[in-house]
Amino acid sequence: MPSRPRRPVAKEPPPAPASHAVLGYARVSTGHQVLDQQLDALAAAGVEGRVFTDTISGTRDDRPGLAELMAYARAGDTVTVVALDRLGRSLSGIVQTVKTLGERGIVLRSLREGVDTSTSTGRMVLGIFASLADYERTLIGERAAAAREAARIRGRQVGRPSALTAEQVAMTVRMRAAGESVGDIGRTFSVGRSTLYRLWSSSGELPEAATIRPDRGAHR
Fold first, then answer.
1. pLDDT average, residue stretch 69-98
2. CA distances (Å), 41 to each of 46, 188, 218, in order?
3. DSSP 165
4. pLDDT at 137 over 80
5. Interhelix angle 91-103/64-72, nearest 10 degrees
């Protein structure tokens, strides 16, 4: 008996590619400013997805709107801002945010600067920004080092001012040698125990080992 021809197995259609969102981010520094102008510009640029906002200084790292955007965006999405300075106030901070987006496969568009990281020109422009940020960090470090050296040559205090003067440190040593507790000495000069130990060590006026130990059972 002849075998029946097999019916072709119907193949399931391939899954539709996931749609990529076009997101926006807008920020103003204070509550006295309004976001309307940025929101209008983003809408005119074709941002149809969610727009995340902040009313906070760009120098702050704890920007909840930006944090929410970074958590929400996925690879292939596009984030649009009116200007790069909306992402932060410092060049290095902006570059770091852009770098994080790029590493996650998220495209950034900035309307004012005409930057689009999906194009080779946009990536080149951001590369220039990254070089400038690195140069800025180098200059800041060199200036700080030069200022410290100039202060050292002139005998000025370098770094954080000492909590106590040399005379006060010497007095704390005498008080400790006389049997005063570290806690009482600290309260007298409004400093903590760790500060006293650090001052004694750095000044070279360290009390004897038996007297510098923390007071056992005192002032618990």
1. 89
2. 9, 61, 66
3. -
4. no
5. 20
Taking only the tens place, the pLDDT of each residue in 140-152 is 677 777 777 776 7
Asked if 28 contacts 35 with a C-beta cutoff of 8 angstroms, the reply is yes
Shortest CA distance to 123 belongs to which of 104, 100, 98?
A: 98
Beta bridge partners of 79: 23, 108
Query: What b/e readout covers 118-141, taking b as 16+ CB neighbours within 10 angstroms?
Result: eeeebeebbeebbeebeeeeeeee
Other CB atoms within a 10 A radius of the CB of residue 61 amount to 9
Confidence grade of residue 219 (pLDDT, cut at 50, 70, 90):
very low
DSSP per residue over 105-155, as a string? T-EEEETTTTEETTSHHHHHHHHHHHHHHHHHHHHHHHHHHHHHHHHHHTT
Catalytic residue among 19, 29, 92, 131: 29
Q: What is the pLDDT of residues 59-80, one digit of tens each?
A: 777 889 999 999 999 999 999 9
Q: Return the CATH fold of 22-133.
A: Rossmann fold (3.40.50)
| 29 is an active site residue | yes
| Helix, strand, or coil (residue 81) | strand
